[in-house]
């Protein structure tokens, strides 16, 4: 196992900082200030590793602290979370998926309580809302389905009313094939991804529910190669993951210009920080450890299916060591929880997506290969995540199998 | 600070909970039904709970009244991401025949406080649709972009307005100004592409102008990825990009000046690939491309070593046979 770049070659790493060509602008100033704070973290760790000698080349993942933070949030949240009062199934998903990645099992009673709470968010006309007594929305619907599948109990599966879910999903499709997030709500690529994930996992998918959707998504691929929220907008990490994952679930990945996507995607890994940025000339953010790096396994799967002979079949096509370095050195809060970048507060969203990114950087997993690239001690290893659904591999398989035995709900 | 604190506490004193307001006496508040064993329970403030208890009540009875409208103002203030409240507020706007211009003023204030929120921008868009009037939108989005020139929601709204109301005139100048301020503003480069691809498109004259424009920016800052991406983007609208006059020389000249920007090298590789695809090339082109890949992978852009090695293999597999055979 190689040492982190900040231990192995600190001086060489310095040379990877931004070159501003003598022209300073707001973007370069912001980038320089992030490089400085990340550089301080690297430097501190470098000094610590020098003192500790050979055995401590990689920082540990503070599992105990993270678990404590997660368990606390599953039970109650501070007033500051009022702004997420319309996203509570999301909070359940972020926490449960993080717990899963850390190897934590949910006791039966607690599992049942979570399932029942998600049930309270289910709407009479189908789909799930951000809290009980609110309207159905595709994002919490996605989060609710993932939460229930992560719980993986029959009770959890049975919460989902597949008949009404199917009709809710269908009713969100607009004439262009795009999906609106809720009744009278906005349209962007998240909608299509959330809808097709919910439909596929619960086996309510039917081609006519997604007529024109793949073509609409493909129209969002920008001249840079990444995907935007809507046609014409700037390529963006979150929307890119949603787009390519949705195209795969719709069976229309051929509509994507793969080489353009791959170029844009690989350019998003920051040469100094090691983490990913969301857009060109923007700043590194721990959450893109999943949204950007997470697109590599999806792209790998597509290229592999297309028999690309140039594809390396031993690892993903990004620098997994550097990403692990960024997450472990720069994104851990001392009291538990993970974060965007040094100086930012921890939260459950960043905890989930930093850990998800860390997991897929640690595991190269294809149909016939399973190679580990776990940096640091064994204790740093996380459970494996499904590259498209971002729930546990086994959870995804179990859910698909359970729902595949149920009949397709009839259309009303 | 002391003065602020005073204002703060005096406003606390005069705030009356809905449960204590005589004009709401007739309404039975509806508690949030989290079930017997709530999880992810948020420690709502007393005010938040009070406002939402009454919001749930009016939502349930579908009350279309002035007081319900005022209640939604309080509810969105406490949580502007509550899409149910915004949706209900729009129902009220219609039912009560409210002044939409005043509502537009209101949402302007809210957006300035919460510029990165989906719901508030969507609300604005619906208002503009209803009024069929977007006269304030360019100024408003430009105000927001002055605070954050890369705000995705603001750009998205601006694009929708321009496209829907045909506001193309002057947009390129707007982009010019933003790029003069920050040539690394990738959102501005994207807007440039958006405007041109929807107006003149990249016809020969436009393309020539844009290539010159972009080359100027590249010469100023060869390590700025945005301008290189734009250059590649606009040239990709043509079948062949390598034979665009002066392009190869432009790159070679910078390269000879020892400018080792990874984006320059990547662009040179793309020119080589384009040349190889058109079969108008020789073995030297492939060699040059693979050498550039090596340089990127080993020295200039090591974080992307795997990608550049993949690209090299891909080129060699696609074009290596023809050269030797």
Automatic annotation (TrEMBL), chain A:
This is Protein farnesyltransferase subunit beta. Essential subunit of the farnesyltransferase complex. Catalyzes the transfer of a farnesyl moiety from farnesyl diphosphate to a cysteine at the fourth position from the C-terminus of several proteins having the C-terminal sequence Cys-aliphatic-aliphatic-X. Catalyzes the transfer of a farnesyl moiety from farnesyl diphosphate to a cysteine at the fourth position from the C-terminus of several proteins. The beta subunit is responsible for peptide-binding. Residues 61-391 form the Prenyltransferase alpha-alpha toroid domain. Pfam families: Prenyltrans (PF00432). PANTHER family: GERANYLGERANYL TRANSFERASE TYPE BETA SUBUNIT (PTHR11774), PROTEIN FARNESYLTRANSFERASE SUBUNIT BETA (PTHR11774:SF6). It is an enzyme of class 2 (transferase). It catalyses: L-cysteinyl-[protein] + (2E,6E)-farnesyl diphosphate = S-(2E,6E)-farnesyl-L-cysteinyl-[protein] + diphosphate. It comes from the Eukaryota. Its EC number is 2.5.1.58. One of its GO terms (biological process) is prenylation. Keywords: Lipid metabolism, Metal-binding, Phosphoprotein, Prenyltransferase, Repeat, Transferase, Zinc. Its cofactor is Zn(2+). It comes from Holothuria leucospilota. The lineage of its organism: Eukaryota, Metazoa, Echinodermata, Eleutherozoa, Echinozoa. The keyword Phosphoprotein applies. InterPro entries: FTB, PGGT1B-like, Prenyltrans, Terpenoid_cyclase/PrenylTrfase. Heterodimer of an alpha and a beta subunit. Belongs to the protein prenyltransferase subunit beta family.
UniProtKB/TrEMBL annotation, chain B:
InterPro entries: Prenyl_trans_a. Belongs to the protein prenyltransferase subunit alpha family. GO terms for molecular function: CAAX-protein geranylgeranyltransferase activity; protein farnesyltransferase activity. One of its GO terms (cellular component) is CAAX-protein geranylgeranyltransferase complex. This is Protein farnesyltransferase/geranylgeranyltransferase type-1 subunit alpha. Keywords: Magnesium, Prenyltransferase, Repeat, Transferase. Pfam families: PPTA. Its cofactor is Mg(2+). PANTHER family: PROTEIN FARNESYLTRANSFERASE ALPHA SUBUNIT/RAB GERANYLGERANYL TRANSFERASE ALPHA SUBUNIT, PROTEIN FARNESYLTRANSFERASE_GERANYLGERANYLTRANSFERASE TYPE-1 SUBUNIT ALPHA. Its EC number is 2.5.1.58, 2.5.1.59. It comes from the Eukaryota. It comes from Holothuria leucospilota.
């Amino acid at each position: 196992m190689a040492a982190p770049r900040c231990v192995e070659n600190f001086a060489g790493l310095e040379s990877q900082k931004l070159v501003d060509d003598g022209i300073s602008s707001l973007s370069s100033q912001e980038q320089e200030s992030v490089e400085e704070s990340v550089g301080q973290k690297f430097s501190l760790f470098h000094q610590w590793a020098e003192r500790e000698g050979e055995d401590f080349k990689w920082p540990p993942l503070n599992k105990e602290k993270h678990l404590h933070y997660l368990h606390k949030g599953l039970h109650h949240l501070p007033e500051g979370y009022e702004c997420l009062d319309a996203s509570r199934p999301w909070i359940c998903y972020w926490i449960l998926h993080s717990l899963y990645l850390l190897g934590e099992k949910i006791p039966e009673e607690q599992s049942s309580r979570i399932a029942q709470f998600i049930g309270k968010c289910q709407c009479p006309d189908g789909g799930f809302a951000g809290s009980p007594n609110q309207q159905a929305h595709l994002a919490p619907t996605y989060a609710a389905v993932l939460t229930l599948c992560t719980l993986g109990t029959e009770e959890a599966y049975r919460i989902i009313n597949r008949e009404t879910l199917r009709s809710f999903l269908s009713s969100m499709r607009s004439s262009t094939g795009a999906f609106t997030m809720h009744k009278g709500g906005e349209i962007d690529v998240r909608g299509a991804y959330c809808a097709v994930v919910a439909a596929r996992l619960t086996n309510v998918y039917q081609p006519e529910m997604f007529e024109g959707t793949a073509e609409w998504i493909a129209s969002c691929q920008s001249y840079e190669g990444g995907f935007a929220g809507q046609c014409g907008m700037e390529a963006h990490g979150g929307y890119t993951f949603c787009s390519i994952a949705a195209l795969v679930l719709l069976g229309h990945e051929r509509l994507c210009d793969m080489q353009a996507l791959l170029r844009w995607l690989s350019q998003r890994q920051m040469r100094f920080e090691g983490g990913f940025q969301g857009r060109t000339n923007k700043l590194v953010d721990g959450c893109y450890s999943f949204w950007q790096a997470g697109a590599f396994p999806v792209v790998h799967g597509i290229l592999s299916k297309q028999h690309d002979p140039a594809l390396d079949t031993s690892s993903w096509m990004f620098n997994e060591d550097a990403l692990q370095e960024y997450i472990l050195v720069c994104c851990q809060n001392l009291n538990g929880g993970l974060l965007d970048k040094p100086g930012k507060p921890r939260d459950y969203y960043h905890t989930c997506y930093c850990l998800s990114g860390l997991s897929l950087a640690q595991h190269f997993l294809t149909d016939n290969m399973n190679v580990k690239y776990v940096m640091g001690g064994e204790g740093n290893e996380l459970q494996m995540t499904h590259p498209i659904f971002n729930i546990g591999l086994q959870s995804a398989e179990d859910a698909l199998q359970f729902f595949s035995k149920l009949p397709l709900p009839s259309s009303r | 600070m002391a003065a602020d604190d005073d204002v703060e506490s005096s406003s606390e004193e005069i705030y009356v909970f809905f449960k204590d307001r005589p004009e709401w006496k007739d309404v039975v508040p509806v508690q949030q039904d989290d079930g017997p064993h709530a999880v992810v329970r948020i420690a709502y403030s007393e005010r938040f709970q009070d406002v939402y208890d009454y919001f749930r009540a009016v939502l349930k009875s579908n009350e279309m009244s002035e007081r319900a409208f005022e209640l939604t103002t309080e509810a969105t203030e406490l949580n502007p991401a509550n899409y149910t409240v915004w949706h209900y507020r729009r129902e009220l706007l219609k039912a009560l025949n409210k002044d939409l211009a005043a509502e537009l003023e209101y949402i302007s204030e809210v957006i300035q406080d919460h510029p990165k929120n989906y719901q508030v921008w969507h609300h604005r868009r619906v208002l503009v649709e209803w009024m069929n009037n977007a006269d304030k939108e360019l100024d408003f989005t430009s105000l927001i972009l002055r605070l954050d020139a890369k705000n995705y929601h603001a750009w998205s709204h601006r694009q929708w307005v321009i496209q829907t109301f045909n506001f193309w005139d002057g947009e390129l100048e707007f982009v010019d100004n933003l790029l003069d301020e920050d040539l690394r503003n990738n959102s501005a480069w994207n807007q440039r592409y958006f405007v041109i691809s929807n107006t003149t498109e990249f016809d020969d004259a436009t393309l020539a102008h844009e290539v010159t424009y972009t080359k100027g920016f590249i010469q100023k800052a060869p390590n700025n990825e945005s301008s290189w991406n734009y250059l590649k983007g606009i040239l990709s609208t043509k079948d062949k990009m390598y034979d665009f006059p002066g392009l190869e020389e432009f790159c070679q000249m910078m390269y000879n000046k020892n400018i080792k920007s990874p984006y320059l090298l990547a662009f040179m590789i793309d020119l080589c690939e384009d040349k190889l695809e058109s079969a108008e090339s020789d073995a030297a082109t492939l060699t040059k491309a693979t050498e550039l890949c090596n340089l990127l992978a080993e020295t200039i852009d090591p974080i992307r070593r795997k990608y550049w090695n993949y690209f090299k293999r891909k080129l060699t597999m696609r074009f290596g046979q023809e050269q030797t055979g």
